[in-house]
């Protein structure tokens, strides 16, 4: 047995290259007995806390067996009194002198219970592990700089940490999310489950409720600017903004007098509105793109145009609220084939927000949808049916910054339906009014 040891302070950890062997059988008989578990645990606690193994430790109500074990350890009676007190320097000296643990008490306890990591070291190692967990985002941002702000939020808000719980799980999660976002937005659009199977190895990897779905959808919104929301319909359209289709049939858009398929041509000849599904628009989009396509927010406008103008109405599309996946697919297709858009919506914060969301996806010019038009609408409103007060959260109007200021100043909303006669007049013979 190697008894080589230096003159280290009691309880000091030996240098790695000078560590001597511990006589484990003797150590277990002397210090590793059940009656001294309390003593070993006190030493372990000090090692974890990074405290020196000096001074006394006490046991308030020792058993006779615990007193006898201390007496065997120190080769003397531990003293009287109700409690049991042991000086750690004395234990360290016994272990070194006997050759059981030439490197002292710290080495002995490590031999009995395994390596003990000091709390400060454990904390530093944990922080380093969490830093490594987020490295997939670093490589993603190098390839997709437009996701830098999103990646910074993921690091800061703790969502990935809550979803993954451990550094290893978070690293795995972010690796999968980064792989998905590298290929988005998908063009042409693809099935969400097929995309997940191809990129992530499971058709269900992006199902609702999975951590991968939560973070990937967040990244898609950062890429596409899709507005905040909630609910199944919102999630479907948010996925679709990135070219991933959850449901090709339930996402629809309302239109009048579009042409370019046999069905659309027949309906346009009749002047009848039609509901187009996302499935139809992906598989057979219109082959004809009119020079100008008009867009409204509310179905009442489109229905009135069909009633009043029939086949003579120029191509008109109705959003029915926030742009659906089908509406965006149709508008992007038409824009890509040369159509220009004119847009009108409600003069309220919700309407302006819808208009802004659309403008981030396709370009359009206002159709009687400026500050001047809003003030005119207020001036000519019927006093018997006054407009309602404006409610909701203000938003910007980048197509006409004065419009948001005008709404905030007046505090009155004007629904699109109140402008119906004026809008129909434009559709009968489109003016150059901006």
Would you give an account of this structure?
There is one protein chain. This protein folds into 3 domains: 16-116, no CATH class; 125-242; 252-428, Dna Topoisomerase Vi A Subunit, Chain: A, domain 2, CATH 3.40.1360. The model is unreliable at 1-18 (pLDDT under 50). The protein has 21 helices and 10 strands. The longest helix has 15 residues, at 119-133. The chain has helices spanning 24-30, 37-49, 64-74, 88-98, 105-113, 119-133, 135-143, 148-157, 159-164, 167-181, 192-200, 211-224, 232-241, 262-270, 278-283, 299-309, 325-336, 349-359, 371-379, 401-410, 420-428; strands at 56-59, 84-87, 190-191, 244-245, 252-256, 273-277, 292-296, 316-318, 340-343, 365-366. The protein has 434 residues and is of the alpha/beta class. Helix content is 50%, strand content 8%. The chain has a 6-stranded mixed beta sheet, sandwiched between helices. Strands 1-2 form a two-stranded antiparallel ribbon. The chain has a two-stranded parallel sheet with strand order 3-4. Helix 2 (37-49) packs across helix 5 (105-113), helix 6 (119-133) runs parallel beside helix 10 (167-181) and helix 19 packs parallel to helix 20 (401-410). Residues 53-259 form the Conserved hypothetical protein CHP02679 N terminus domain. Residues 275-427 form the DUF2399 domain. InterPro entries: CHP02679, CHP02679_N, DUF2399. This is TIGR02679 family protein.
